[in-house]
Amino acid sequence: MIAEHFPVLVVILPLVTAPICVMLRHGGRAWLLATIVTWASFALAIALLRQVMDTGAISYLLGDWAAPWGIEYRIDQLSAFIILIVTAIGSVMMVFAPKSVTAEIPGDRVYLFYTMYLLTFAGLLGMAATGDAFNLFVFLEISSLSTYVLISLGKERRALTAAYRYLVLGTLGATFYIIGVGMMYQMTGTLNMADLAVRLPAVAETKTILVAVGFLTVGIGLKMGLFPLHLWLPNAYTYAPSVVTAFLAATATKVAVYVLLRIYYTFFGAGIFEGLPVSNLLLALGIIAALGMSAVAIFQDNAKRLLAYSSVAQLGYIVIGISLVTATGAMASILHLFNHALIKGSLFLVLACVFYRIGSTKVDDMAGLGKSMPFTMAAFVLAGFSLIGIPLTTGFISKWFLINAALEKGWWIVAVVVVAATLMAVIYFWKVIEAVYFRPRPDGALVVTEVPALMLVPLWVLAGANIYFGTNTNLSVGTARRAAEILLGGGG
Amino acid sequence: MAFPGLINYWIVVILMMTGFYIVISQGNLIKKIVGLNVFQVSVFVFYISMSKVFGGAAPILDDSIETYSNPLPHVLILTAIVVGVATTALGMALVVRIRDAYGTIEEDEIQRLEAEESEP
Fold first, then answer.
1. Of the candidates A101, A337, A370, B81, which lies 20 to 30 Å from A361 by C-alpha distance?
2. Class of domain B3-118
3. In chain A, which residues have their Cβ closer than 8 Å to the Cβ of B29?
4. Please, what is the end-to-end C-alpha distance for chain A in angstroms?
5. Which value does ipTM take for this structure?
6. Which of A380, A229, A228 is nearest to A306 (CA)?
């Protein structure tokens, strides 16, 4: 049956389509193919999640080589959920992309954009699907290398330096990761994640493994933009093409968080938090990120950069959730992964619409757009509410669980931090709203109209999802809870 | 173990820190990539060192061989070398484009140009 090959198909399909896009050498045709493939992956992801929820984790042996010798793909609730997030965002973005891409990328390079997009997409899915620590590194590099290219496609020349800086830091991060994997291999003789989980506890107290934890944390921290390793992120998000920013903000950092969860809870088990002060460190960094980066966001005058800092702050929440080392905490983190992908996906798509019309995302240039682009800006308000965490939106749900998890442990200070950071989110979000709705369009500025329906519909699908999953929480909360229970229950 | 026993790992650490230091301290974009390469090579040496079995032969299928070195890390490092080549190529390509756009590959000059750009 073909169904048993779904775990590998979801990764292979975009991976083999990417070179076909190069051969097409035509922007429109490449877009059509890429769209079909991303939606097919989305359908596969839904099928996978259903299957996993019914029958538990699926194991797929590549080339039928038995694990732990061969490479195993292992889809459990958490990876199926992450695959669903990536494919959902990726396929909606594809519908949105053509107009925005044509406006921002020279015509003869458009087909290369779709090639790189598919490679990033495949890399991220591979990272979520694989059950092999070294295979994860390979997919990490596939997604990273193609991401550098995507960022360098930005219009301004600063996109090039942003991509270069990300390349240097990203390569350092990935290399740190393989050093950590090498040390684990040295101590256990295996690379299979399930096998590592069995063998690591016996050697968990050795210096080698403690050093490995350090390397893995720093390496993945660099990829996910964990404060203070986020230095590449604001420039990369600001100067990348708008669609790329939206896609990366919604997926790339999320998959890195998934890898961090895997490392802590699957490789080492929650026991690792007893031997090392990892959780205290993560808690401190998370709090500084949530407060500090929200404060920095307030002073930005470019809306894209403002949201980039806000992303680092939101990652702070996720890291706080991980550092609590409870099922509720992990669940809040996983839930916020999903919700933040929806929020930032829609916010950055709004900025893509704005850039499409006025060619800038400076807050001052956006003055008065509320009248001329009412539907786009309404989506911005909606997603912004979700970012702040107004009830009935997704942002509220994840913050609610995060605060609950903190109070469960009696750490009310953490709850205060979350609320304080939320208040700062109100300030920086208001800054944009004030310009958009309460300032007149400056004299002599471009007269703009609403963006075409092809951009508006995907934007509203994402923004609407913020409300849908804020009121109907069965899918997101249910899956996140199961995933967190399995993570903390050990392997599963 | 005596001095020669761990010399590989000493070399790994020295190479790693040298590469890392070059990445941080050099302002020239090409030299940064050189540093990145040295850093990556240290990891290759690390993997290959740990796969060595003393007294072991090369991992070939032959009846006369009983102990042999672990071949898996060699394969892993082949993959990592390919990744390193791709990274270097992409980094170099970016440097070429940066030179076209800025007319320099010195980081401090690029930062000066960017600072001028943002204060019109």
1. A337
2. mainly alpha
3. 164
4. 25
5. 0.93
6. A380
